[in-house]
Design goal:
The complex is a heterodimer of chains A (477) and B (472). Chain A has helices at residues 3-11, 17-35, 43-58, 100-107, 150-157, 174-179, 214-224, 267-283, 295-313, 332-343, 346-359, 365-388, 411-416, 422-427, 456-469; strands spanning 38-41, 69-73, 111-116, 163-168, 183-186, 206-211, 254-258, 286-290, 391-395, 431-438, 444-451. Chain A has an eleven-stranded mixed sheet, with helices on both faces. Chain A has 477 residues and is of the alpha/beta class. Chain A has one domain (1-477): Amidase signature (AS) domain (Amidase signature (AS) enzymes). The mean pLDDT of chain A is 96. Chain B contains 15 helices and 16 strands. In chain B, helix 6 (310-317) packs across helix 8 and helix 12 (417-427) packs across helix 14. Classes of the chains: A alpha/beta (477), B alpha+beta (472). The interface between A and B is large, with 44 and 29 residues.
Chain lengths: 477, 472
């Protein structure tokens, strides 16, 4: 059921908010022991929020998200509810503030079901680096969910929430959405406040939405978007209205298909995305072959910038103020060292090492500064594509969800799998991923639509148009 | 001295903003530990810095106060290092694009000291070590207190130049409302970079940095100690090690803190959470227009327009509040010298005695001006003017009333004066005789006798005039 229908059912009293929440909590109990999409389920709080929501509905004060059960990724701070980043380091960290995105949903009396699983500190593409054990793909529990918002995507796919907040630094909302057969939207940088989002790479991070449809992602984005004085990087441009173009005529749009994104992509993925292009062509859209020549440098640039920022952002976890503190250490240098050694997982330490290396004097120019140059170059290349196109169509990932464990020992392969998603973050653009087919094993194939900055409504409409004619399979649990 | 010292300074000034630089916590000195702390300045996960525009404006003013270029574009960077008093484990500072560059100040001997840059940054917290318990505790009250760092070129060659520069910076920052410049409280801290080279050489030696000097006197002593220490090393054929040293006031020496090898690699990179600071030319001009008259300009006004001696002018400008008081007084009554004398004399004396500051006194600049005017016009004597200041310190009150109540108003009626003088001259006939025989020193004695006879309130100027005429 989409969110608009759910809204009217709640408003018509066909369903009670408490009843709806209990229904989701029951499903979580039944299914999540296997899927492991939640790190923390907020049973009591959710019921309380649902009661409050019902009171608002009864008083005729319902807002778009009132009474809608949503999951929140566990790197988004929630007042009074532990926020772990799927790390031992923050296993017991309970924030005293809400992220702005959560606060805005609370202002609408939404229902928070719980906090979802993820890669530790959002670093990864499988969610398997979680300290709490990785989530499983609802389409095949021996496969990964993708990541880092794997719990968010799995919770939506498995019907364990109506929508989910995730975060996307290099594809972390879109890629797991593709792997789990749902829709994931990464808004333009500056659209959703990062206040309360525990930073991975500040210049790339953006809170996004995972839902059952493009329209639903826009529906949620309407409520969380907008300038926030607590985050100086938010823009005053986002004003909502993200579903205003859905159902409209998209046949005059020009869709760019950059060839580089199809190199090294699985045949099945390539074919499904090209089939989607044909779908749009049949509607009357102009399909334009275009090029993003710097794509070959994108993964390197992304890992240098994101790891450099991460190394700095994660330095605050020293065991002094909050979070995990080692029992070992004669002085504070030792204490800090041991706390970080024991509190962080392998992948996180890997990126911290990489980031610090890239920032060291002597290497800074070769690594960090070159990455900045590539960033500018990629932005320029996008700008020139958007002179001729309205949206860009690409695969979301070169593959479908793979078996758990098969890529763990090959970081380079893992990193290069991000090639289809990172450029969007590097350029700060909006993008949405939806399912455009299934591979021979029945796993979902994702395609992405990238738009101009702050033009989410166009990509949502284009994505929505495809979804209307596409027969999405339910996962069988 | 066999070597030429070469010095450069880094001066940290705490900015006089109401709140901290990246959060809304109060910016204040002292107070109980960790009472001015919030999720932002204690580096809680998910929090973001929010730039205090007031701090940026004060940094721009510091630039104007030191002849710098204030830039339309400046940006923040992160300086990364671990220390328990730095909760984010990075300091937000300006590295690549500071707000001000290329300034200067002229110091003693007319020498121009170039200022490389002024940038904005945040202060760290404090660690309190309890050796008895064997523990260290962190106080984050100072975390996020806004600072500017003023960095000079290595243009100093003498202690006097350094000290004059520091005094001038302190005054200029105080006058511009940038910093209260209380060195003893640490709101202005000085690091000195110092190296030696043989006279005549133009190749700088290896430098040592002396950290956190908190008085002009300490700066002088630390430099002298360091010159001595480095000279001895060089004399013995040794090499000065590049390192950071701390001056210990009690031992009057400097001790190594860390060497170059132990120095941090700060891994600077652009701060992604704060957009660059952009100013239009108009906005920069608006700030410049708000600049008050600076102390060196006041000094010129006092010495050139008011003809106040340089030493006196220097003393008046030393504290802005004192100088403001003086300016207000002379704007009421243009008795520049008389008011200067009263303020540097009895007013300063009483301030020292009572430990009060000029803002706390019971009288206004207009009261001092009135007192000076009465003395200048001969309504009261100069000696009475001093007494009046003392009374004003103790009780306050209008100068006219004080003068009347205490009988300070001089009697300018000379009608009975001739008789009084004649009486005194008759009574002191032998002294008068000696005076007339050439012992001119006795004039003072005779004068004193007349004043005594004339009583309190007699006008000494008029008595002198009349007595001189009689004794001719």
């Amino acid at each position: 059921m989409n969110l608009i229908d759910l809204r009217s059912k709640l408003d018509n009293k066909e369903i009670g908010a408490v009843e709806l929440t209990q229904d989701y909590l029951k499903k979580i109990k039944e299914r999540d022991a296997v899927i492991n999409s939640y790190i923390t389920v907020c049973e009591e709080e959710a019921i309380k929020m649902a009661e409050k929501a019902q009171a608002a509905i009864d008083a005729g004060e319902a807002k778009p998200l009132t009474g809608i059960p949503v999951s929140v990724k566990d790197n988004i701070c929630t007042e009074g509810i532990r926020t772990t980043c799927a790390s031992r380091m923050l296993e017991d960290f309970v924030p005293i503030y809400d992220a702005t995105a959560v606060a805005r949903l609370k202002a609408e009396n939404f229902v928070m079901l719980g906090k979802t699983n993820m890669d530790e500190f959002a670093m990864g593409g499988s969610s398997q680096t979680s300290y709490f054990g990785g989530p499983k793909n609802p389409y095949n529990v021996s496969c990964v969910t993708g990541g880092s918002s794997g719990g968010a995507a799995a919770s939506v796919a498995a019907g364990l929430c109506a929508a989910a907040l995730g975060s996307d630094t290099g594809g972390s909302v879109r890629q797991p959405s593709a792997f789990c057969g749902v829709t994931g939207l990464k808004p333009t940088y500056g659209t959703v406040s990062r206040w309360g989002l525990i930073a991975f790479a500040s210049s790339l991070d953006q809170i996004g939405v995972v839902a059952n449809s493009a329209a639903d992602t826009g529906y949620v984005l309407n409520s969380i978007c907008g300038y926030d004085e607590n985050d100086a990087t938010t823009s005053k441009k986002p004003q909502g209205g993200y579903t205003s173009m859905t159902g409209g005529d998209i046949s005059k749009l020009r869709i760019g298909v950059p060839k580089e994104f199809f190199e090294g992509t699985d045949e099945e993925v390539k074919n499904a995305v090209m089939k989607a292009a044909e779908f749009y062509r049949a509607l009357g859209c102009e399909i334009i072959e275009c090029s993003l020549p710097s794509l070959k440098y994108a993964v390197a640039a992304y890992y240098l910038i994101s790891s450099a920022e991460a190394a700095s952002n994660l330095s605050r976890f020293d065991g002094i103020k909050y979070g995990y503190r080692s029992g070992l250490g004669e002085d504070y240098n030792e204490l800090i060292k041991n706390s970080r050694r024991e509190g962080f997982g392998k992948e996180v330490k890997h990126r911290i090492m990489l980031g610090n290396y890239a920032l060291c004097s002597g290497y800074y120019d070769a690594y960090y500064n070159n990455a900045r140059r590539i960033r500018t170059q990629i932005r320029n290349e996008y700008a020139s594509i958007f002179e001729k196109c309205d949206v860009i169509l690409t695969p979301t990932a070169p593959t479908t969800a793979y078996e758990i464990g098969c890529q763990e020992n090959d970081p380079v392969k893992m990193y290069t799998a991000d090639i289809c998603t990172v450029t969007v973050n590097i350029a700060g653009l909006p993008a949405i991923s939806t399912t455009c087919g299934y591979d021979s094993k029945g796993m979902p194939i994702g395609m992405s639509l990238t738009g101009k900055a702050f033009d989410e409504k166009t990509i949502i409409a284009v994505c929505d148009r495809f979804e209307r004619d596409f027969d999405r399979r339910e996962c069988v649990l | 001295m066999r070597y030429q010292p070469v010095m450069g300074l880094e001066i940290h000034c705490e900015l006089l903003t109401d709140s901290k630089v990246f959060c809304s916590c109060q910016n204040e000195f002292g107070g109980s530990e960790n009472t001015r702390v919030c999720p932002r300045c204690s580096g809680m996960p998910g929090t973001l810095p929010l730039l205090n525009k007031g701090a940026v404006k004060l940094a721009a003013k510091a630039g104007f106060a030191t002849n710098c270029t204030v830039h339309n574009y400046s940006a923040f960077d992160r300086k990364n290092y671990f220390y328990p008093d730095l909760p984010k484990a990075y300091q937000i500072t300006q590295f690549e694009s500071p707000i001000c560059t290329d300034g200067y100040i002229d110091v003693v001997g007319g020498k121009r000291i170039r200022i490389n840059r002024i940038h904005i940054e945040e202060d760290a917290g404090k660690l309190v070590h309890d050796d008895y318990e064997g523990i260290s505790l962190a106080d984050y009250n100072r975390c996020g207190v806004p600072l500017i760092e003023i960095v000079t070129e290595p243009d100093f060659r003498t202690v006097e130049e350094v000290q004059d520069f520091v005094v001038q910076i302190a005054q200029r920052m105080q006058y511009s409302g940038v910093c209260d410049a209380r060195m003893e409280q640490g709101s202005l801290r000085v690091d000195v970079n110092i190296s030696l080279m043989p006279y005549g050489s133009d190749e700088f030696g290896t430098r040592a940095e002396i950290k956190n000097l908190n008085s002009v006197k300490s700066i002088g002593r630390a430099i002298e100690y360091e010159i001595q220490r480095q000279s001895e090393i060089l004399d013995n054929g040794g090499e000065v090690v590049q390192e950071t040293r701390r001056y210990n006031e009690n031992h009057d020496d400097t001790k190594a803190l860390r060497s170059k090898e132990e120095a941090h690699d700060y891994r600077y990179f652009p701060e992604p959470d704060i957009p660059p600071v952009l100013f239009t030319d108009e906005e920069i001009e608006e700030i410049r227009k708000e600049m008050p008259e600076l102390p060196h300009k006041r000094f010129e006004r006092y010495t050139e327009e008011y003809k106040i001696p340089a030493e006196d002018a220097k003393l008046i400008i030393a504290q802005k509040a004192f100088s403001d008081f003086y300016d207000e007084a002379v704007s009421a009554v243009p008795e520049y010298k008389m008011i200067s004398n009263l303020m540097l004399g009895e007013v300063s004396h009483q301030l020292n005695e009572t430990g009060m500051s000029i803002d706390e006194v019971r009288f206004s600049p207009a009261d001092v001006a009135k007192t000076a005017e009465m003395a200048a016009k001969g309504v009261i004597s100069k000696g009475s003017a001093k007494d009046m200041i003392v009374i004003m310190f103790e009780k306050g009150g209008a100068p006219e009333d004080i003068a009347k109540e205490n009988g300070f108003i001089m009697d300018n009626d000379t009608s009975g004066l001739d008789d009084i003088i004649d009486g005194v001259l008759a009574a002191q006939a032998d002294v008068v005789e000696k005076y007339k025989n050439g012992n001119e020193k006795l004039f003072g004695f005779i004068m004193g006798q007349v004043i005594k006879a004339a009583g309190k309130g007699a006008n000494p100027a008029l008595i002198k005039e009349a007595l001189t005429a009689k004794l001719k």
